[in-house]
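Form P-L/3: holo structure prediction, ligand 5'-O-[(L-methionyl)-sulphamoyl]adenosine.
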Amino acid sequence: MAFYVTTPIYYVNAAPHLGHAYTTIAADVLARHMRQRGEDVFFLTGTDEHGEPVALAAQREGITPRELGDRNVERFKALLPRLGVTNDFFIRTSDPEHADRVREILQRVHDNGHVYKGTYEGWYCPRCADFKSEQEAGEDYTCPIHRIPLDREKEDNWFFRLSAFQTDLERLLADDSDFVVPRAFRNEARVFVAQGLRDVSLTRANLKWGISVPWDPDQVFYVWFDALLNYVTALAFARPGEDLTDRFWPATFHLIGKDILKFHAVYWPALLLAAGLPVPDHLYVHGFLLMRDSEGVDHKMSKSLGNVLDPFEVLDNYGADPLRFYVLREVSFGQDGGVSTAGFAARYESELANELGNLAGRVTAMVVRYRDGNVPQVELDPALGAEIDVAPAAVCRHLDSAQLSPALEAAWQPVRRLNRYVEEQAPWALAKDPDSAGDLDRTLASLVEGVRVVAVVLLPWLPETMGRLLDALGARDRSLAAARYGAEVPTGVERLAPLFPKVEQIEATA
Ligand code: MSP
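OUTPUT (holo model):
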C-alpha cells in the first residue's frame, strides 16, 4: 500500500529550530514504521522560499531572497541527517520544476473558471503572509500572532473563488470525517468555514519574489498557493525521468502545526478540487513546543527571547535518538507542551538510561557472564511472550492514525514488563544454584528474545541505538514481521557499550 507523508515546508527566513525539527522527527517515525511494515513509502520535506516572509528578511540583511534561501536551506538540509531523518526528497519552492508545475496547475484552475480579476482592499501581515479580517486586525490593526502593525493594502489582483467550495468543505469537515485529526482542530476548521467562505487573492501585484502568473506575468502567485502545491509538484520531479504522482497522490498524512490549519484544511482542499485533483486522506495537526522555564512556566519559543532549545547543541552532546525520543515522549502529539533542558536530562536519565539502557545492558551482560554469550536454545516463557506480543499490534493500530504518543506508550510497555521480569526471576540468584540451570536458561532466552522484539518495535523512534542493540543480538530481520516473540530468537550476544551513557560519561569523552 502507498504511504505518503509530508512535513510543512519551512520558511528560509531564519535558521531551523526545535519546532521545525519536531514535525520532521514525527514524520520520520511514521515513515520508518511504515517501511518496517513493507509499505510503499514516500516522505517529503523541504523549504518555502517565496513571498514576503523571505523577501523582507533578505531585505533586512541587504541580500537577495535567493541568496538568503541558498544560505539557509543548507542549515535545514544539514539538520536532517543529524536527526536521523530518512526523507525521500527535499523540495525547494525555488526549484524550476516546481515553478513549472505550479503554473500548469494554476492555469488549469483558471481555465476551469475558478479565477477572476478583482481588487483586494484590506489588512495583510507580511510575516504570516496572510490577509486579516477587520475582526482579526482588532482596534489597533496589529497582527494577533506577530504583534506587528498590519499593512493596509489595495491592489488589483486575481482572486480564487474559494466561496464556490463552501458545500464541499462542509462535507469534508463533517462530524463523521477524519480528514483533520485530532478532532478539536477539525472543529476549528469547521467554525471557520461556517462563518461563510470569502474569495481570496491568488496573486500579488506588488511583490516580485515569487512564481510569475502565466496569464498576467506582472504578477506572482500568492506564496501560500505556491507553497501548498509543493506536496503535489514534488512527486513529478523527485525521481528524474519518473513521475510518482499516480503512485503516491493523494497524500496519506500531511503533518502540520496548528498555526497553519486554515491554509491546509480550507484553502488546500478547495484548490485541489478546483484543479480536479484528489484531496489528501488526512491532516494531522500538532501543537506547539513551548519552552518551560525553571519555575515550570511555559513560554512561546522565540529567537528574540533567547529561550530556544537549540537542536544542534542537544545533537552535539547526545546524538539524534535521545532528542527524537524526548520531543515525542514529553509532549502529547496534538497538544501544546513545555520542553526544557532540565526536562530533557530527567527523561534521558530515567527512561532511556535507567529503563531501556539498563535493561539492554543487563540482559546482554548476563548472557555473556552466565552462558559465555550463547543464548540457550530452549523453550521460552509463553506467559511473557503473550504480554510482549500485545505491543507491536497496538503500535500499528495507533500509527495507522498517526497517534504518535499512544504508540510510543504502547512500545514502552514491554520495556517496563521486561524490567519487572528481571526482578521477578532474579537470574543472579538462579545462577548461584546449579539445580536452577534450566530456569536460568529459560529466563535468559526469554529476556533476550523480549529485548529483541522491543528493539524492533522501537526502531522508528531510536534508529541508531536500537540498530546497535539488534546488531549485538545478531538480529537480521528489522521488519515488523520480526516483532513477534519467538520469531528470531538470537543464538549469541555480544557485549554492548552503554546505549545511553550517563551525562558525565559523555562529557568525559567529549
Ligand atoms: N512555510 C510555511 C508552511 C508552508 S506548508 C505548505 C510555514 N513555515 S514555518 O517555517 O513558519 O513553520 C513551519 C512549521 O513549523 C509549522 O507547522 C509550524 O507550526 C511549525 N512550528 C514553528 N514553531 C513551532 C513550535 N515552537 N512548536 C511546534 N511547531 C512549530 O509556516
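COMMENT: Residues 176 and 381 are 44 Å apart (CA to CA).
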